[in-house]
Structures
1.
Amino acid sequence: MANVSVYNMEGEQVGTLELNDAVFGVPVNEHLVHLSVVQYLADNRQGTQKAKTRSEVSGGGRKPWRQKGTGHARQGSTRAPQWKGGGVVFAPVPRNYSFKMNKKEKRAALKSALSDAVASGKLIVVDELKFDEIKTKAFVKVMNNLKVEKGLVVLDENDPKVVMSARNVAGIQTTLTNSLCTYDIVKAKKVVLTKGAVAKIEEVFA
C-alpha cells in the first residue's frame, strides 16, 4: 500500500496515511480515463447549433430561368446550396451529444485517475480544512502553505465556510466525494483531499 504525507493547514507534515491499493494503486487504464473525459465533455455540450437546409430557407419556389436556350447552367431553385442565400448542405441541427458508460467503467476510470495522481505526486492529503468564518484570504493562505496554485479540493462534507472562501480563488475548484469525477482529477494540477474524503472514497470504491 502507498503511504502519503498528511499536512495541516499550515503546510506542516503531521503524519502519514496508508492508502488502499484497491482505489489508489490500481493499474492505470488510459482508454477508460479518456472515454470518461470524452463522455463528461459530451454531456456538457449544448447541442443547440442550427442552420437551415434548402427545404427551410424562404423563397426559391420558381425556376429562375427556363431549362434550355439561355446559355446558363440549368437551375431549379435560387435556394439551392450553390446560390447566395441558399440552404446549407447537411446543415447542423439540435442534437444530444451525450452517451452512456457502464457503471463499472466509470468506477475503473476514477480509480485510474486517482492512482495516477498518487503516482505522479500531485495528490496532497490534509488532516482537515476548517475556517471560523468565510474568508478568501484565509483559504488562499492555506493553499500557499500547501504550495497549490491551481487544483481541485475534495471535501468529505459540504462546509459552506470552506466552499464560499474558495469560490473566488482563480484556478481552485471544490467538490464533494459524491460529486467527484475523472475529468476534474485529470484536469487539476494538484488534488487536495481531506483525510475524511480519503476515508469516504475508500469506503465507496474499495
2.
Amino acid sequence: MNKKVIVLGGGASGMCAAVYAARNGAEVTIIEKNTQLGKKLSMTGNGRCNLSNLDMNEKMYNAAAEKRMKQWLSVYGVLDVINFVKSLGIVIKSEDGYLYPISGQASTVVDAFKNELKRLEVKVVYGEQAKAVNVIEAAEKYEVITNINSYEADRVIIATGGLSGAKSTMSTGDGYYICKKLGLSVKDTYPALVGFKTAEDEIMPENGVRCTAEISFLLGSEVIAREYGELQLTKDGISGIPVMQASGKVVRFLAEGKPIFASINFFPDYDEDDYLSLEKEMLRLRDDRSLAEFLNGYHNSQINEMIIKRTKMGRSMKMKNISESMVRSIFDNYRNYKIRLSDSYGYQLSQVTSGGVSLGDIRDDMTIVSDNGIFVVGELLDVDGRCGGYNLQWAFTSGAIAGTVASL
C-alpha cells in the first residue's frame, strides 16, 4: 500500500521532499499557508536562484552542523542537485562554480517544481497554517492539525522554514512551535546572511557606495571573522556578501549586547610594504592643492569624505600646511576604518535563519529521534551555510533524503 505523506511547507525543501516521495509512489499532500508555492525561492539569489555550488563541502556550514553535513552531502551532494534540477527540465550554468538556471530567473525554477508536482498528482492545500502534529499510536499514523482542518498521514515532513524573509513570504517560524510540542530542542535563532546597522554617531557616506575591501569584525582585540569582497556602505549601515558571510558569527554577540566593531581596509590588495610605498609617494606630492583635491584620485570620493570628516580636517586645507604625521593618520584610516555596529537588519532582510531545531534530535535519515515517521528538513534545523548556493543545497539535500525515506 502506498504511503500517505503530508509535507508541511511548500518552500524549496518541502517541494523537493514532495517530488521525491511522489516519484517513489507515495500519495503526497503539501500544506502551505501562503497562497502560492516557493514564494521565498522565487526571491532567492536576487531573483536569479543560486541553486548550489561546485565548491561544495561541510566547511561551508555553521560549526554545529559541520560534522553532520559531511555525511549528508556524501548521500546527496552537488551532482545530485544538478541531476535533480535537470530532471525538472531546468538547464543550468556555472558562473565561477556558482550554479544558476540558465534563464537567470528564480521563477522558472518555481514553475518547474509546480509542473512536476502537478504531473505527479501531488495535492496542494493553500491558505492553511499548520499548528500541530499528533501521534496516533494505536493506528501507527499521524494527525496534522491546521487552523482550519485536520489530516491523517502515514508520514509527516515538517518543512515550514525559519524566520528569515520578507513579510510576503510569511516566514514566521511556525515549525519551531510544532517541533517543541513534539519534544524537540530548539536552539536560539538569529538572522543570518544579513547586513548590520552602524551606531548613530559613526561617520558613513551620505549616499550608498560599493567598494572592494577587506572587513574584520572585532570583539575587543579578538578578530571573530574576516572577509573580502564588495562591500555596500550606506549612511546607517554596512552590507554586501563579505558582511553577510560573517554575519552568522557576529549577530549572536550583538544579540548578547557585546560591543562589536568592524574594521575596513579600503586597500585590501596592497600588502604592508606596498601601502607604505604608496604613502611615501603621496607624501612627496604635497603642494598647494587642498586636502580634498589631494585625495581625489586616492579612492572613491565618498570614502575620501568619510575619512576627512573622521580626521576632523578641513577639505580646503592646503596639503603643504598639513603635517606628515597628520597625513599618515589619514592614510591609516584607509587601512583601518573602524566603526561600531549597533544591530543587524533583522529577519526580514536576512536570507536564512541561524539556530533552530537541534541536530541532536535528528537521525541521518532526517527523522526525529523519538519517532521514525516524522521528519524535519531545511531551514527549520540548526543548519546555515555561506552565500553561494549552500543553503539551497541543504534544502535539496534534506528534502530529498526525507522524501525518499518517507515513501518507503
3.
Amino acid sequence: MYKIAGHTMGTPEYTVLEALQLFHDIGLDGAEIVVQDDYRSGLPTRCSEEELKAVKEKAEELGLRIIALTPYNSRFNDLDEAVRQKEEEDLIRCIQYADYLGAEYIRIYGGNYAAGDTDPDEKKWGTLVESMRRLGDEAEKHQVKLVIENHFNTMTVSAKQSIALSMAINHPAVGILYDQANLTFTGQEDYLTAISLQMEKVYYMHVKDLKFKEGNQGFVSSDVSHPKEEERNVVTKIVGEGELKWPEILKKVKECGYDGWLSLEYERRWHPDDIPDASIGMKKSADYLRTIM
C-alpha cells in the first residue's frame, strides 16, 4: 500500500512542529516540508542546526518520516551565471538539510520559463540539463533524489517535456515528480498519456484535486509558484471531491510498478478560501485515498 505524506503547503496556520503533530494525529505516514523564508509552516533557507534538530527529533518522536523538502529555487536555466550559481548553492544547502533529516526527495522546478519566454538556440535547456547533472552529483553523495515537477512556468509543464528533460539529464539521482492536477489545469496530457510517457522516471507523486471554473478560458500565470486569483481557471478541492480520477490514476501507476509515496499537496497556503483547515480537508483527503487504495 502507498504511504501518504502531508505537505506543509497545506498548513499555513501551523508551525512546522505543529504541522508534524497534525500529520501524526490524522494518521499520515510522513511529511513534505517547504523550505522558504517568511513562511510559518516552512524551514528557512538558511536553517540553523537547532531548527533542524528540533524538526528531526519531533518527527522521530511521532514516528513520521520526513520524506521530502520543497524549496522554491527555479532559475537553474538562467543564462546569467551568477544567478544560476546562487540557485545551485541554495539547492546544495537544501540537499544537506535533506541528508540530516533523512528526506529522500527534493522537489525541483524545471527552470524558470514563463509564458512568452523563448529558447530558440536551446541554451536555456542546455543550461538546465548541465545544472541538474551537477546537482544530481551532489544529491547522490547524500543519498537524495531530485524530483522535477510537472509545473507551469517551467521547462517541464508537460509529461512530454518532463521525460525529455529527464532523459537528457540521464542521472540516477534526478527523476520526475508526477502531478496530474498540474497537467490537467494547464491543458496538458490526460492521466493515461502522462503515465505512459513519463512513468519510467517518476520517483514521487503529488496528490490534489480541482474543479474547473465556469467559462474556463485556459491557464496563464505570471508567477512560477502559484497563480494570482484573477489568473486561476480552477477551484481547489478536497481530494475525491474534484474532477481528477484518482482511483483510475492510482490503479494505473501501480500497474506500472509505482509503489512510492503520495504527498497531499493541499493548497491552503495559496487558496485558503477554497478549502478548510488541514485538520478537516487534509484528513478527508487522506481518508479518501485509503478507501480507494
4.
Amino acid sequence: MIGTSKVLFLAHTGQVSGAEKVLLDLIGEARRDGLDVIVACPSGRLAESLPSGVRHVEIDQLGLGGERGVARGLAAVRLVYRWIAAGRKLRPLARAEDTATVVNSLFALPVARVARPTRGASWLVHDTMTSSKQRAVVAISKPAIRLAVSVSDATAVPLRIADVPVIVSHNGVRWPVSRFGGELHDPPVVGMLALLTEWKGHRVLLDAAAMVPGIRVELAGSSFPGDADYVAELSARARRPDLADRVAFLGHVDPDTALQRWDVVVSASTSPEAGPLSVLEAMSHGLPVVGTDHGGTSEFLAAGAGILVEPGNVGALAEALRSVLADAELRRTIADAARARVAAEHDLSVTLPSLLAKLISRQDVAPAGS
C-alpha cells in the first residue's frame, strides 16, 4: 500500500450483482485502511449503496443491452463514444498523484485505456474470457492493464494465454455463519440466486425441475432492462402445465433470507462463472449446491463440497436434484465439506484484505510469456 492514498474504483453498471457486492466490500476495506475512495459508476443502486465519505462520479452505462441486428451495431458505436467520454472525464482523477485505479468489470476496461492512469490500472476479473467480444475488449484495453487479479484459477487461464499479467485471489464470504438445512421443507424447495440473464441457466433449471415432480423452485434475483424478453420467456415456461404453481420469482432479496427457504441451491450457468458468490454463500450455510462443471464453480464444489453436472444437461441436473433430495446423509456430508472449505479458503476477513492489497500494490507481474 506504500505510495497510495487514494483509490479510484471504476464500474460499468449501477446495478448490484455479485461483482458489485465484492466492490462494495473492497470500498469498505479501503475506507477502514484510511484511504480516500472515489467510485465512478452510473447512477443506480450501486451509487446509492456507497458508504459515507465516498465520492461518486457519475458516468454513463458501459454495457450493451438486448439489441439485435443493426440496432446492436449502432449500440456498439454509442458504447465506444461512452468509453471515450468517461475516460476523458476520469483522466484527471486517474492520473492524480498517489492514486491507484481499480477496474471492476470487463466493459469498463476501455475507459482506463482512455484515462491513462499513471500507474496503469488493476483489473478485478469477475468474468471468464470465453467469447470473441470479450477478447476484443481485452485486446483494446491491454496497454492500460498493469495487473489482472482473477477470483479463480480457471478464469486466470485464458488471460495468461493472452499474455495479460495475472495473479489469483479468491473471493470470500462472511464466516462463521449459521448452518441452514436439515429436514426438508414440504414440499422441498430448490433455489437459484442469480440475475435473470440468459447465461445464468434458469431455463435449464426449469426444464430439470419439470422432470422432478413434487418440488418447488424459487428464483431470486433482479434483471437488467435488456433482459426483459428473457424474463418474459421464463415466466411463460413457469406457467406451463408441468411446472404450474411450482415456480416463484422472488426478485431482489437478501441472500440469507432466500437461503433459509431452500433445501438445495443450483448454479446452472451455461458459461463459466469466475467465482460465484451465491455458491460460496450457500456453501457457508451448509446448503448442498448442484453446479455446472466449469469455471470457478468446479473449484468451489470439488472433492465432495457439492455436486457437479455437465453445463446445459437438463437430465443430469434433474438426476442430481433427485439424488440429493432423497439422501439426508449425502446432504449432511456435502454440507460438512462445503463449510470446511469456506472456513479454510474463503473467509472474507482473510480474503478481503489480501485482495485489496494485491489490487493497489505497486508490485508488477510479468506476462505469462515473458
